[in-house]
Amino acid sequence: MKKISLPSIFSQLLLLFFVLIWIIPTFGLFISSLRDKDLLAISGWWTSLTTTKVNEIYRMAGMENQIKEGDFFIIKGKLFDSNSGKKIQSFGITSKRINEFAVDDIAILKDDSFVTVNEDGEYILKSEKEFSKKKGKRLFITALSPPAFTFDNYREVLFKEGIGRAFINTMAVALPSTLIPLIICSFFAYALTWMKFFGRDTLLAIIIASLVVPLQMSLIPILTIYNDFGALFGVAAKSYPGVWMAHTGFGLASTTFLLRNFLKSLPNEMMEAAKVDGATHYDIFLRIILPLSVPAFASIFILQFLWCWNDLLVGLVFLDQVPSEIILTAKLKELLGSRGENWEILTTGAFVSMTVPLFIFFALQRYFIRGLVAGSVKG
């Protein structure tokens, strides 16, 4: 049996700690996106499976709902739906004393009418005089609310707040911006690795040097060039092709460098044997390089896709902030300003933005580590 040592136990515990640090906020965000908005506003996600005490304000029905029974004018109604599961503990008729009366107590209002409230939210308002106001009187209640989960937050976010359209726009940006540099860098990395031509090492040095150039420094100059070309050919610079080209240019150096490191680790004997059998560079690339490079392509796809999906800066510069072009991160930024107090909107929108990266990562994760470390050891 393998001997268990203190360093190995410590490393496993440390790994578990970092996994929990990553999973717990994600799980909390998912639970928050499913909670009732009223409960979410007053309690944390960790209380989602417990009963919560809530203070709420309701308005009773107005004069149009009154009926006369004997000497009294009566208004009957229910404060909330029976399916909500809420149980009223106390109620009040003023904001200063919201817990003044217990359930089934009689509360006398200023106009000498009186009201009783049951545990399930039913109330009876009585008065010897006829009710004359269209707007009903307010009731302040303290109730116990059971755990409540709903998909209403997702329906509102996807169809009313525009997140659904922004999701489609982001997919239209991220997929081409990932596939285009992946296709280009595959040929580029092969040429830098297995083809001999003048200036190959210089070109590789330029690619490595370009990795240290900050993206922010080149955004405005590139957009200016796009505007000039767009004016020349009658094409708008702020468009999907523009942002595709921008992401391709910014990601091409890193993707080429990573893929070249992987291709360099492949045995040279296979390439020489293929050449002896009469294979061209195109045949070698299609029949040998591509099948062997699936882990590397998967790793590069994940890294490039996550960068394009989570990007905000490039999307703000190269796309107009209109419903037909706004991306998910820009839409969330907009909601943060306009709906900053609506936690149910923000948490649901944030989790929607995480679904695709999580799916991509878990679907390709078995290739991810293999692709990243494959070029670190020769052979």
Concise summary:
The protein is α+β, with helices and mostly antiparallel strands. The chain is built from 13 helices and 9 strands. It has 3 domains: 6-48; 52-146, no CATH class; 154-376, MetI-like fold (Orthogonal Bundle).
Describe what you observe in this structure:
The chain is an alpha+beta fold and 379 residues long. It has 3 domains: 6-48; 52-146, no CATH class; 154-376, MetI-like fold (Orthogonal Bundle), CATH 1.10.3720.10. Helix content is 57%, strand content 12%. The strands form 2 sheets. The chain has a 5-stranded antiparallel β-sheet, with no helix packed on it. Strand 6 (106-108) and strand 7 form a beta hairpin. The relative contact order is 0.11.
Q: Which structural traits does this protein have?
A:
379 residues; alpha+beta; MetI-like fold; 3 domains; four-stranded antiparallel β-sheet; disordered C terminus
Mean pLDDT across residues: 85
Amount of helix? 55-70%
- Evaluate the radius of gyration: 32 Å
CATH homologous superfamily (4th level) name of the largest domain: MetI-like
Structural class, judged by helices and strands?
A: alpha+beta
Biggest β-sheet strands, sense, barrel: 5 strands, antiparallel
SSE ordering: HHEEEEEEEEEHHHHHHHHHHH
Shape: elongated
Approximately how much beta-strand content do the residues carry? 5-15%
CATH architecture of the largest domain: Orthogonal Bundle
Instruction: Using the coordinates above, name the CATH class of the largest domain.
Output: Mainly Alpha
